[in-house]
Amino acid sequence: MSELDFTSILLRKNSLRKAVEEASIADLEKVLADLTEIKAEKLAQKEAEEAAEAERLEAIKKIQEQMAELGLSADDIAAQTAGKTGKKGKVPAKYRLIDADGKPHEWSGRGRMPKVFEERINKGASKEDFLIVN
């Protein structure tokens, strides 16, 4: 039985009645107790989420009040943090080689070594042979 079928049975009284017609009173009481416990857990989880959201909104309100007292706006904060995403951009090539077809290949020295460089090193060259000298 799929989850959808199970949910469909639980949500329709006649389907539920048919599904439990062979169950004993003790079994039905156990199911009822389990459902009551699950309901209480869900309610507690919902209350905790609502409390956390209320706390978050209160913190935002306090920060907005502090910003207003100091004459700051969200744009002021955004201007100070613009460009500070932590990403450093593209790393310049440190190594270069020209293949047999005359095509240049460059590598920053970071990450996995390109196959072209790997093949040349396996034939006896060293990485230093491909250093780009400025």
From TrEMBL:
<dbReference type="InterPro" id="IPR027454">
    <property type="entry name" value="Histone_HNS_N"/>
</dbReference>
<feature type="domain" description="DNA-binding protein H-NS-like C-terminal">
    <location>
        <begin position="85"/>
        <end position="132"/>
    </location>
</feature>
<dbReference type="GO" id="GO:0030527">
    <property type="term" value="F:structural constituent of chromatin"/>
</dbReference>
<dbReference type="GO" id="GO:0005829">
    <property type="term" value="C:cytosol"/>
</dbReference>
<dbReference type="Pfam" id="PF00816">
    <property type="entry name" value="Histone_HNS"/>
</dbReference>
<dbReference type="GO" id="GO:0003680">
    <property type="term" value="F:minor groove of adenine-thymine-rich DNA binding"/>
</dbReference>
<keyword id="KW-0963">Cytoplasm</keyword>
<dbReference type="GO" id="GO:0032993">
    <property type="term" value="C:protein-DNA complex"/>
</dbReference>
<protein>
    <recommendedName>
        <fullName>DNA-binding protein</fullName>
    </recommendedName>
</protein>
<dbReference type="GO" id="GO:0000976">
    <property type="term" value="F:transcription cis-regulatory region binding"/>
</dbReference>
<dbReference type="Pfam" id="PF22470">
    <property type="entry name" value="Histone_HNS_N"/>
</dbReference>
<dbReference type="GO" id="GO:0046983">
    <property type="term" value="F:protein dimerization activity"/>
</dbReference>
<comment type="similarity">
    <text>Belongs to the histone-like protein H-NS family.</text>
</comment>
<dbReference type="GO" id="GO:0009295">
    <property type="term" value="C:nucleoid"/>
</dbReference>
<feature type="coiled-coil region">
    <location>
        <begin position="25"/>
        <end position="69"/>
    </location>
</feature>
<dbReference type="InterPro" id="IPR037150">
    <property type="entry name" value="H-NS_C_dom_sf"/>
</dbReference>
<dbReference type="GO" id="GO:0001217">
    <property type="term" value="F:DNA-binding transcription repressor activity"/>
</dbReference>
<keyword id="KW-0238">DNA-binding</keyword>
<dbReference type="InterPro" id="IPR054180">
    <property type="entry name" value="H-NS-like_N"/>
</dbReference>
<dbReference type="InterPro" id="IPR001801">
    <property type="entry name" value="Histone_HNS"/>
</dbReference>
<dbReference type="GO" id="GO:0003681">
    <property type="term" value="F:bent DNA binding"/>
</dbReference>
<keyword id="KW-0175">Coiled coil</keyword>
<dbReference type="InterPro" id="IPR027444">
    <property type="entry name" value="H-NS_C_dom"/>
</dbReference>
